[in-house]
Design a protein that fits this description.
By secondary structure, this protein is α/β, with parallel strands linked by helices. It folds into two domains: about 70 residues, Helix Hairpins, CATH 1.10.287; about 80 residues, Roll (Chitinase A, domain 3). The protein contains three helices and seven strands, in the order βααββββαββ. The strands form two sheets. It has a five-stranded mixed β-sheet. A two-stranded parallel sheet has the order 1-2. The longest helix has 30 residues. It is elongated and about 70 Å long.
Length: about 160
Amino acid sequence: MPEKEILLTAEGLKKLEDELAYLKTVRRKEVAERIKAAIEFGDISENSEYDDAKNEQAFLEGRIANLERNLRYVRVIDANEIGTEKVGIGTTVRLKDLDYGDEIEYSLVASPEANPMQGRISNQSPVGKALMGCQVGSVIEVEVPAGVLKYEVLEIRR
């Protein structure tokens, strides 16, 4: 089954490529050194340093494989492709919380670029899914663990 296309901004692609390069060059060497040092402690059958280093190596190699797999399916979003008529990946949306009257702003991005603390939400998150395709004036209700959020879309921009 073919993988789904992963839409990223140029910035998001660079971030993933930089992480992959760092993991393959710097982190692999660091973990290899940890394994080597642990082996020098002697009997590896009861060596917790060795076990920890091998577990870290397995995690690292899994992350590298995941990044390489994802990068094969990346399509960079051209800023010129991003319209402002409807909410989509690459748009920034200003919303009004209909329960509290607060205004908030989110940038919709693909999952690998999401960082809610920076206002970058995934198109796969509950709020992101509800916003996709909305227009200015749309009202959405989103069920989240804390309850139901109600927003009105006030503005859509690149």
